[in-house]
Design a protein that fits this description.
82 residues, alpha/beta, 3-stranded parallel sheet, globular
Length: 82
């Protein structure tokens, strides 16, 4: 993330699918905690979380990292995941 900030990027996109080793939100918040530069555009799919829980997750991350958390709602990355 720091290298991206130094290169002028404001945020990096994280992918989300069921095949990644790590869960996107947990890994993303951990990365934000270890850096001071760019933010993250954290991907999420409808149905992965309840709407109320997801809203709380976003609000919590935004409180800890003001201006560094963005959300990308996606429908899937392959036909097998839709």
């Amino acid at each position: 993330i720091e290298t991206a900030a130094e290169a002028g990027f404001s945020s990096l996109l994280t992918a989300t699918n069921y095949h990644h080793e790590n869960e996107t939100w947990t890994a993303g918040v951990a990365a934000l905690a270890r850096t001071r530069g760019a933010g993250l555009l954290l991907a999420v799919r409808p149905g992965m979380y309840s709407p109320a829980q997801f809203a709380k997750m976003v609000a919590t991350a935004a409180n800890f990292f003001p201006g560094r958390v963005r959300v990308n709602v996606v429908t899937g990355s392959s036909p097998a995941e839709n």
